[in-house]
Amino acid sequence: MLMHQWARHPDSIEDARDAQDRELVRQAVIWAIRQDRQETRELLPALEDAFFTGGHCRSNSLNNAIEIVMDAYLEEHPEVA
Q1: The dihedral of CA 8, 13, 15, 16: what is its sign?
Q2: Which of 18, 37, 43, 61 is placed for a possible disulfide with 32 were both Cys, Cβ 3.0 to 4.6 Å?
């Protein structure tokens, strides 16, 4: 499914990707993990797959998981979006 079909903030996510906004990605991931957000249910297994396969995971699953976390973060922090 394309991000524009499910995400509430697809343009902000794409802008962050285009600008290589590492700080926004970092903030979103840290926020999700610290808050024990439901969105980490997809992120953590994707990170584990990346680690256990020596980085040869399905990068699409990791990308999707990060997009989900970022979308939730931007929803909770509208001043960033």
Answers
A1: positive
A2: 37
